[in-house]
Amino acid sequence: PRRGVRGSFVPPVRGANGSSVVGAVGTPRTQGGADNCQEDSTRKCMELLAGPDGQLPDRLRNLEPKLLEHVSNEIMDQDPAVHWDDIAGLEHAKKCVTEMVIWPLLRPDIFQGCRAPGKGLLLFGPPGTGKTMIGKAIAGEAKATFFSISASSLTSKWIGEGEKLVRALFGVASCRQPAVIFVDEIDSLLSQRKAEGEHESSRRIKTQFLIEMEGCGSGSEQILLIGATNRPQELDEAARRRLSKRLYIPLPSAAARAWIVRNLLGKDGLLSLTDAEIESICTTTDGYSGSDMKNLVKEASMGPLREALMQGRDIGNISKDEMRPISVQDFMNALQQVRPSVSESELGLYQDWNRQFGSLA
Ligand code: ADP
């Protein structure tokens, strides 16, 4: 039986094999507790996936419950909670994505025949530029269920089972339409490097993935596949063909960097810099990605705290009001610690690939 309102709390601890075991600390009900919890979670997951008749849809019946559960609990995100307004810059990409994929997901009846959308979208560009955020925002704006998986975890973590997990992923997505499947590092799955070195299991995962992609591209399924990569040049021709819309997500412009600084500091009530000061920060951060900017703001925001502690304040009782506002100097100091993560030469590669294969080039 489940723990009642008055039952004592049994803390979850890591099992010997790294799995999460509930209540393994010396209670007689230890094993039963873990089993019950597992059963409970499996039952909830099956309920979630059941059709109106209370039965699992045909497509899911032959799949292992543990994989369905993993997809439902770890890969599916019911509320991605990112909106266009949270993403700085990238106006052109947002506009294209809205037309190419959001409208078709919202109005499948209009986007048929010659208006039928492609089912695959590739977002490529340097790391930390908002590709994952765009994926989540698409799902949010299109009111779609969001599934997010890293392709490298399929090939490394799921050895022997990756292929089945791919089937479970597309199977669950087909029961939760409209759905957006976001595959990060898609290059590691659909790379052109293969032949002798490739493991049999990776090859099978790739084949299964291509079959599923083909399946969701045909017929009336409302499943959009979004692949993201920092290494588009690794993708083979078959992958490029299936990901027919290919959008370059570049480094943020100075205006977008300013927006990120303002937004992050403003959210925490820490914005005391003038427009001119923010502009000066942005001119010195050319080449920084969105995620570099986030790290820079984090580092700069430590300045006032470090200074107050150096002046003898105690971390145990210092109040927020006792710290001075964040200054441009804090940002200048932070610039020594946080360097841009993308080099000029890498940028050249993205631009070349965009000219050759990008949809907006
Ligand atoms: P990618 O998927 O391109 O590697 P992410 O979307 O995961 O990058 O972005 C990482 C983090 O960097 C985000 O959580 C966000 O804080 C910040 N970031 C990156 N790009 C932007 C952007 N255009 N607007 C706002 N924040 C951004």
TrEMBL record:
<keyword id="KW-0067">ATP-binding</keyword>
<keyword id="KW-0547">Nucleotide-binding</keyword>
<feature type="domain" description="AAA+ ATPase">
    <location>
        <begin position="117"/>
        <end position="253"/>
    </location>
</feature>
<protein>
    <recommendedName>
        <fullName>AAA+ ATPase domain-containing protein</fullName>
    </recommendedName>
</protein>
<comment type="similarity">
    <text>Belongs to the AAA ATPase family.</text>
</comment>
